[in-house]
Amino acid sequence: MSKLQSQQHIEVELKTDELDLTSAESKATYDEIKAYIYKNSGLKVSSLNIAQVKQKYGFELRENYYISKKEKPRQPKCPKEKEEAILATLKHFQMI
What we know:
Elements: H1 30-41, H2 47-56, H3 80-92
Helix pairs in contact: 1-3
């Protein structure tokens, strides 16, 4: 069809700002979350902190391939101030 020489054309105008967000567009990456938190509160959060907060509030997480081989692995807990900043960021990105 693209090789045909046609005299008729159809023009379509689509405004993307009127469309709803797709599920992929409403999700922020861990790097975007970290950058937003650092810019707004000056806190540096780790991916572990973000994953702990997401797990606490029922987000589905992918399997972690870097599982510790120790019998009782120790993980630091996310401080309350960082948890609050992560929650505010997730709300900003409309993930909650």
